[in-house]
Amino acid sequence: MSALPSPSALPETVDRIVLYDGTCGFCDASVQWLLDHDPRGRFHYAPLQGPTAAALRARHPALPTDLDSVLLVQRTPTGEQVLSRSSAVLAICAQLPGAWSWLAVFRVVPRILRDAAYALVARSRYRIWGRVDACRLPDPDVASRFLP
Fold this sequence. Notes:
The structure is a single chain. By secondary structure, the protein is of the alpha+beta class. Helices cover 34% and strands 14% of the residues. The protein has helices spanning 25-37, 51-59, 85-94, 111-129, and strands at residues 16-20, 44-47, 71-76, 79-84. A 4-stranded mixed sheet has the order 2-1-3-4, with helices on both faces.
């Protein structure tokens, strides 16, 4: 599970990877929140600064290279789907159990408006939540869900 994705596909046991800024305090807190609210362990995680993200960028040249966007790469019957910013957040929420999945209703809001709200948070995230020196080491019970 900790092996790097090959240039042609996600690791066989990984269907969903959330790519996040590994030095952002808000992003780190968001990943910890997702771990708490994803009891089935559907999502795997990798920092945008790491080799997993680099391999995914090589495979998907259109992926944003900036660090202000959460990305969701997920396996589909026809290949891989890449979502960014508000679309990624809503797709992640849609796959969580319970009331969190209801947040997907905001997909009806035009993406340009959703992404504007996302950008507002992204611009102030370091100022409000700070930076972390490095990605926090995960607890042993969830370590297998983190990719380099």
